[in-house]
Amino acid sequence: MEQENYHRGDKMAILVTGGAGYIGSHTLMALLDRNEEVIVIDDLSKGHEYAVKGGKFYCGDLRDEDFLDTVFQQNEIEDVIHFAAYSLVGESMKDPIAYYNNNVKGTITLLHCMKKYGVKNIVFSSTAAVYGEPEHIPILEEDNTNPTNPYGESKLAIERLLKWSNNAGDINYIALRYFNAAGAHESGSIGEDHDPETHLIPIILETALGIREKIIIFGDDYDTPDGTCIRDYIHVMDIAQAHILALDKLRRQGRSGIYNLGNGAGFSVREVIEKAKEVTGRNIPVEIGDRRPGDPAILVASSEKAKEELNWNPKYGDLGKIIEDAWKWHRTKISSDIN
Ligand code: UFG
């Protein structure tokens, strides 16, 4: 059937895959604030329906081509922001097939549908995990990519697929390599909500709330000033903003590219815990444990390229603000028992 023969809606929309997940739901909020028409797809295997605060929601798996075809048929999709993926490093080490299957296969089906319906622009959720052990700090986009886990490998495989699809004239893409996404929407109505939770700031705040007895620091014998790992924490709403700027750039220029998203400032695990004590005013018991396999000592981004080419200007760079917003969310969550 020819593309023109499909009956489609009349408003041009942005398709957000994984829009019920952590970064997807925050980007959705930013898009809704801009009065964009949004279609959300999520299979709710990791995400939460309560986090989809607007748009038209479809629950389904990206790998299901008939399902995806229906979504493209029923809506006039103009652009895609693609978050849907498994994203836990540790889990990916245990089940690499599931990671390649979900992340890579889901993207192949999506790209196939985009091609079929003539949709050109895609902003892709990539990760600092594509770099592996860094060669130098701060990390630049042109540095070597050598992932140390299947999660990073699956994202890098997708970046390469996007590059070749662009080369073939099928799509234009911007891949955003996030460093440590953290914080929550200022309203406190959505935030980081993983099960199981493995990320540092939520675990610290759950300890402050008494949900956990203590936080275990994964190693204090790294070659860093206080011996604990250093990361670049970036507010989730700054990441959301970068997706919108990337989309604007694709719409304007159709030029593909890859950009790091970080603050360019590193904080050690101990510094994050100290800052969380200040913000929450609570005691946060700590225990030193073994190193977590695969953790590089230091990961800090250079985001100069995103600042120059996307006009990205992170607003919430202060670690205290990032933890404050996350704290607001964690308290809301515990008091309203969301879920
Ligand atoms: N950490 C602890 N104790 C915990 C949890 C974490 O000490 O209970 C430490 C980790 O060892 C690490 C730091 O806190 O040094 C941050 O850990 P996170 O799990 O919060 O985040 P990662 O840096 O491991 O992961 C991030 C992204 C991934 C991405 C990865 C790239 O969340 O998506 O960077 O290395 F793949």
The oligomeric status of these chains comes to single chain
Task: Please report the total strand number as a whole number.
Answer: 14
Bound compounds, each kind once, are: uridine-5'-diphosphate-4-deoxy-4-fluoro-alpha-D-galactose
Q: Portion of residues in helices?
A: 25-40%
Structural class: alpha/beta
Mean pLDDT value: 94
Globally, the shape reads globular
Strand content: 15-25%
Secondary-structure element order, N to C: EHEEHEHHEHEEHEEEHEEHEEHH
Rg, nearest Å:
20 Å
Question: How many H/I helical runs?
Answer: 10
Question: How is the biggest beta sheet arranged?
Answer: 7 strands, parallel
The separation of the N and C termini measures 42 Å
Strand order of the largest sheet: 3-2-1-4-5-6-11
| Low-confidence region ranges | 1-9
